[in-house]
């Protein structure tokens, strides 16, 4: 009797599993999601490549001439070919400041959301898994936090910091302060969502099996339960990046965000607002359009991810 050999099928690679997933299939058939993702990636590439792509360095005072201030875009009659999008009130090239400003706005938005997610995940996991008085205490603290708007908390904290330590120190630490304030103010969004998912997941068999095997709480929470709650986190994060960018722009417009010497999209809009009625519309309008498009594509991606990752909305 001859031996019969069995050849097992090779396991598909991670990329192959991703290509066969519902997530990738939905992306291929959704033109709005594809266009939004393409625009967002373009923003990221332009922001990362700002030092290489910018015609001028807005941080280098030797490349800025006040005599070049408020020059219209090159397609207008009084425009200058050196400045395709014109110049601002300080004589800086608008294209260069927008590229650098986009990098600053994206950095603040992404870092603030990472801080939100870290705090919210840790607190939400702890509240949902431990339960009892710990759950009640953490969720009441989250309710108190939610009763204050992000803008109100940010305005109070940043104004007090600026008044206490001076404008010069605040300008040096503006990006760090914005990340901390926006990040800490928005963590309850993650905590409440994660807690709800953990309450459903911790009753399942795989969690009971992990307990029987002797795994500790932290391992069960972060190695077993957390990976099964990532879908809502991705959806929230996409929208929260857009909200963080809007918050930074609003604070910069109020004079509590990035200083004019370190341009963000919000500070560019703020610096040009007083000139918009004098005819220098491009100083505010062009950064405003860039900001609106960025926030729009982030929200569109968030809506698409919510529909795809929520099985209750999947219609087959």
From TrEMBL:
<keyword id="KW-0472">Membrane</keyword>
<keyword id="KW-0813">Transport</keyword>
<feature type="transmembrane region" description="Helical">
    <location>
        <begin position="32"/>
        <end position="53"/>
    </location>
</feature>
<dbReference type="Pfam" id="PF12911">
    <property type="entry name" value="OppC_N"/>
</dbReference>
<feature type="transmembrane region" description="Helical">
    <location>
        <begin position="281"/>
        <end position="302"/>
    </location>
</feature>
<dbReference type="InterPro" id="IPR025966">
    <property type="entry name" value="OppC_N"/>
</dbReference>
<comment type="similarity">
    <text>Belongs to the binding-protein-dependent transport system permease family.</text>
</comment>
<feature type="transmembrane region" description="Helical">
    <location>
        <begin position="225"/>
        <end position="246"/>
    </location>
</feature>
<dbReference type="Pfam" id="PF00528">
    <property type="entry name" value="BPD_transp_1"/>
</dbReference>
<dbReference type="InterPro" id="IPR035906">
    <property type="entry name" value="MetI-like_sf"/>
</dbReference>
<keyword id="KW-1003">Cell membrane</keyword>
<dbReference type="InterPro" id="IPR050366">
    <property type="entry name" value="BP-dependent_transpt_permease"/>
</dbReference>
<protein>
    <submittedName>
        <fullName>ABC transporter permease</fullName>
    </submittedName>
</protein>
<feature type="transmembrane region" description="Helical">
    <location>
        <begin position="104"/>
        <end position="132"/>
    </location>
</feature>
<feature type="domain" description="ABC transmembrane type-1">
    <location>
        <begin position="102"/>
        <end position="302"/>
    </location>
</feature>
<feature type="transmembrane region" description="Helical">
    <location>
        <begin position="169"/>
        <end position="187"/>
    </location>
</feature>
<keyword id="KW-1133">Transmembrane helix</keyword>
<dbReference type="InterPro" id="IPR000515">
    <property type="entry name" value="MetI-like"/>
</dbReference>
<feature type="transmembrane region" description="Helical">
    <location>
        <begin position="144"/>
        <end position="163"/>
    </location>
</feature>
<dbReference type="GO" id="GO:0005886">
    <property type="term" value="C:plasma membrane"/>
</dbReference>
<keyword id="KW-0812">Transmembrane</keyword>
<dbReference type="GO" id="GO:0055085">
    <property type="term" value="P:transmembrane transport"/>
</dbReference>
